[in-house]
Every structure is written in C-alpha cells, then in structure tokens.
Amino acid sequence: MKNKGGHRAPAKMADVATLAGVSPSTVSRALAGSPLVAKKKREEILKLAREAGYVVNTTARNLRLKRTETISVVIPLAHEASQPLTDPFFVEMLGYLADAITQRGFGVLLQKIVPPMGDWLPRLVASGRSDGVIVIGQSTEHAVLEEVAAYYRPLVVWGAPTVGQNYCTVGTDNVGGATKAVEHLIRLGRKQIVFFGDPSLPEIGLRYEGYLAALENASRPLEARHIVPAHLTAETAFAAMSELLRSDISFDAVFAASDLIAISAIQAITAAGKSVPHDIAVAGFDDIALAAHSNPALTTVRQDLELGARAIVERMFQRIAGYDAASVTLPADLVIRDSCGGRTRDP
Amino acid sequence: MKNKGGHRAPAKMADVATLAGVSPSTVSRALAGSPLVAKKKREEILKLAREAGYVVNTTARNLRLKRTETISVVIPLAHEASQPLTDPFFVEMLGYLADAITQRGFGVLLQKIVPPMGDWLPRLVASGRSDGVIVIGQSTEHAVLEEVAAYYRPLVVWGAPTVGQNYCTVGTDNVGGATKAVEHLIRLGRKQIVFFGDPSLPEIGLRYEGYLAALENASRPLEARHIVPAHLTAETAFAAMSELLRSDISFDAVFAASDLIAISAIQAITAAGKSVPHDIAVAGFDDIALAAHSNPALTTVRQDLELGARAIVERMFQRIAGYDAASVTLPADLVIRDSCGGRTRDP
DNA sequence: CGATCATCTGCAATCGTTTGCATTCAGGTC
DNA sequence: GACCTGAATGCAAACGATTGCAGATGATCG
Hints:
By secondary structure, the first copy, chain A, is an alpha/beta fold. The first copy, chain A, has 13 helices and 12 strands. Chain B binds a DNA duplex through helix 2 and helix 4.
C-alpha cells in the first residue's frame, strides 16, 4: 500500500524570511547571531523560526561552508565479509569514540569495511562526507594509510607506530604490556609459554616482541613458540587451540594476543578436559568487559580505551584545525584475575 | 605548529570535464552510466576520472537530489549524561544495524542523546542529515515519537507496541518471553520470585506483565513483588540488590528485566555471601554476549537482535520508498544455562 | 539536395545556505 | 539643504553536483 502523503516538507530559510518580511540573508545572519542585524529584529526572526519549526538544512550549509561537522569512524573487519560487527574490542572503542566526538558537537559516521581496502580509504576521503577519518586498527593496511596520510591530514589511526611511518597513531604500549603479562607467568613458575596470535599484524607483532623480551630476561631463558590462528575470531582461535592440544607440543601457559582469543583458548582447553589455570595458565590482552566475567576471570593487559578514544579525538580536532599532532603511546597495566593462578599483586 | 599545507583539494567534476574536453553534464551522465552518452566517450571519461582520483562530492549530490543515503541511529541514554555508550545491548544492536544498513549502501550516522529529548528528534528530522531515523528503545519518549511519526514516515523504533500508537516498532515478545522465564523458575520449585526492574518503561512494563501472568497461572498462585533500580545501569542495580538483601524481605529467585542488571544482581548476591543458583536463582532478559560467559552462566530470554535489526532496516527502507510498514513482534526464546539451577530443557 | 530523425552534447536552472559588496536610510554636522 | 557617517539590509554569486530542454551533429531517405 503506497502512501506518499503525510510527508510535510520542512520549512526553508526563504519561508522564514517571507514570514518575517526580510531577505534570507538577514535570517541567516540573525540565526548565526551576527551583530549586523538589529537586536530587536533578530529576536523577532528567532521567534518566528522557532514557531515555524525551522531547522537549517545541514546539507546545504555543509556544501556552502565546505565542511560537514562529521567524523568517519572506520572499522576494518578482519573477519569474513558477512561477519557482523561483534568484536567487543571494536565495539567498546566505538562507544568511547562516539562519546568524545558527539561531545564536540560533531556527528559520527560509521563505516565498516573488509580488507583489502583497495582504494576505499582514498574514496572516503575524497567523497567529502566527513571532516576527518578515524581508523580503528591498522589491520593489514599500513601502505594505504601511509599513502593517504601524505596528503590528507585529518587521519588518526588506533594502532601501533611503525618505523618511518607518517600517519598519526594512538595506541597502547604493546611491548611493555606484553612483557608485564609474560613476566607474571614466569614469576608464577610457568616454563613453556606459548604465544597465541598472528605477529604479522603490527600491534600483535609488538606484543610478540614484548613476549620475547620477557622470555630472554628470565633468569633462565625460556624457549619461544607461537601459533597463528588464521584470524582474530573466536571460532578460528578455538580450532587452533584445540589442534595445538591434540599435538605433541607440551606447554603450561598461553599468552594470547587478545582477550577474545584468550577466552576461546580457555574454552578449548576446558573442552579438552584440562583445567585453567591448574594445568594451563592463560593471559590475555585488552581487558574487554567480558574478561572480568569469563570463567575463570581473565588475567589480562588493560588498554584504557576511554583514554585512548579521547587521545584520538583530541588529535583529530587539532589536525582539523590545521595543527600537527604527534602519535602517542599509552601505558598498559596488568590486571590480575584468576586465569593464571596465584593471585599476587604485580608491582 | 601550524601546518596548513599538504591539504590537496580533491578534484571536482568540472576538472574532469576540462580534462576530457566535455561539459560537466556529460561527465555526470557518464559517471551515472546514462545511455545518453556514447559508450566510447563514457569509458574514456571513466578512465580519466579514475586517474584523476575523482570522487563525486556527496554533499553537493545530496543537496541536489534531496536525499542523503544515510540513516540516523539514535541511542537514548537512560544513564547519566557523561555515561559512555557501554550497554552491551545497545552496542550489539548497533552492530547488527550497521551491518544491515551498510549492506544496502547507506551510511550510518550515530546519534547519542540523553532524555528528555525535548525537541531533539524534530530537529534531527528537519536537519536533513539523514533519510530516516531509527530509535533504539523508546525510553521515556513515547510522546515525542508519536508526535514526530505523525508527519515523518521513515521512523522506526525498537521497542514495545503500545495501544493507540502510530509509530512503527519492532520488538521482542516481551510478555511471552518473561512468562517463559518465570514459569521456568516456578517449575524449578522457586516460591518467592522478585521482579527486578522499572515497569514504567514500556518494554519493562510488558516483561512485568508476563511475570505477573506466570505467577497467576501457577498451580498455586504466588505473590508478586518488584523493586526498581533507578536506572538500568550495572551500578544502580548492584546497589539496589544489595539493599534488598539487607532488608528483611525473603526471596529465592530473581527475574531481572535485563541481563546487565541480572549479572549485577548475581554479583551483589555473591558478594553478600549467598550462592547462585543454590540460595537464589537468577534469570535475565536479552541474552547479550556476556550472559553465556558470566559465572554462573546466565539463564535468560533470548532476543534475536540480528533478526530484529534486519526487520527494522527492512521496514525503514520500505518507508523511505513511500510504502507503509507495520509494527512487528518477534518471538522470544528461553535459553537455559546455570543461574537458575536444574538444567532441564524448556519445551 | 533538403527534410527528417536518432543520437549525442551543452546550456542553464536548481537544491538551500552563506557572505562580499553595494545599497538604503536615518540622523547628525556645517 | 547638502554632505557625511554609520548601521542595517538586500542582491547576487558562490558551494558542486543533476537534469529538462534545446541545439548540434551526422546518418538516412524520399
């Protein structure tokens, strides 16, 4: 049943102008609070506009002003194309970003993409839909980011700084955080610690570095070993860990590159009839909301996403204003819960 | 350090036109794939445009076409103004919505607001920033929604249908779901079941109805009782449950109006030295991701958010196309885990 | 060869604002 | 009364695309 009626066209500025018996210019100035229009007349116009339910058309205004008061937030989905946006890390980060951005009166335009991006980022930038682009996680797209950053300044990326990189990143101290977690495992007497994650992704690579550093610094250096679940999804992680358990490789601890896969690892270990932390200790990275509620509660490295989001948005607005804003690395703290056993406080 | 340089202005259509030695009209038509421009010329223009990195300016195009290919998703925060967007329910729903919307090539404009909305919704509608508005949860804003829906059709709300309501809602069968959960508790032998939530919110009200119905239908009718945590936040729920435990009211089960407050209730009960489900059984509503991982795992009523999101978006696009789309209520299923004890299958 | 037609192309108006510049008008000064 | 000043207003040109209409071009046919 078609029903085109009932769509009442919103009032435009010219309507208000007619109503007030002035020109659109004057209405525009009155609305903007310009001192050029007499106080009495301004108030009259404002009243009329309010009564008419007039709201300026954002699209027209944006076109004229060449800005949008909108920030794009891009989430590259490392998962399958059809996979919904469920990764708790992204989703928590998104929440904090939305907060910080809307606080400044800007809108948030959500963009989900599945790598390889191809020319997607350049297109987004050129489309003029937003005044700036925030990318959550550099994924495998370092080259594209670098290329676009060369001419487009309002680009801020959550992730790891790499050598000779020119785009602005905000991220956690991945190597320091990982070192803390692995040192914690060593202190608890674990000898065969597996790194669980794909070090070819920039952030994970740094966590792997921290892992190696902790092993080397141990009073008696330990052997390193890592396994690579295909993607950072719960399913692939479960499968990879199950396979590891079936193999003849022996280990008494797992340092997982993210909480999501840490929790999957715990489930796989439990499903295989072993106990966490008694048989195998598991530590994660991120401290997503789930971590505190998993069973056993996950010992993990905390990334302060609220702080991170604020840092990102701060830099974004600096760059929009035309100033430079350098990359920054935020501290990472170990949060000790139950999944590694022996609750001792980390200094 | 100011740094205005480096912002290269994106190519506009006129540039491409000059490059190709034709008029902007022709470029526009070529890009749109109009049969009016000769095939050979079209391909030539497309090639030139690609080389020049040209992307049509969305703002200008939107102004001309009077549409935005963008949907606003509004999240009314019942919480404090400063509270970040953390509620897992919203966030999961948002993910699915973003999926369904981007799949249709539209953008998602995220809007967080804190009630009372005042004229916020009319303003959003009149601002022309989006072609439609999705509101997640009617919160306390029934009147505003009704008013706006009277003249603005592309408005779809996640929530409960109320009598004489004219706006389009998509929601779960709240009363049926609640009945199932409470019947489950009764079947397990619980006698004093507390309803935990604020029935003055439309959706919660229906869950309360379902709760009452189950009590009345019991072979020996049970006494009803509900408590109202100020808001649906984890903190207030924890406080409210702690207070209830300190009071002289005795109870052996809790039916919580959402998983979030159910989990807080469990924590409060555990903190008070009682055991779930042994001393007190707890059932929730929503089946957020956390529910499966809480300790003990939460028995809850599942809302299929993916299905819900798809239903919302479907209706949205129907309404944008000028057709009517009626409200719908989706089925709710009980998911039995550990927080109520006695794992028996629900029919 | 001129008329007719199909096919392609460009002109110019339009979407709803903002703003530089010109204009108007009131009031004051000599 | 002519002149100037300053404040308040309106005109018209942008912003960058789309599209109805008219015009140009070349082919076809009588």
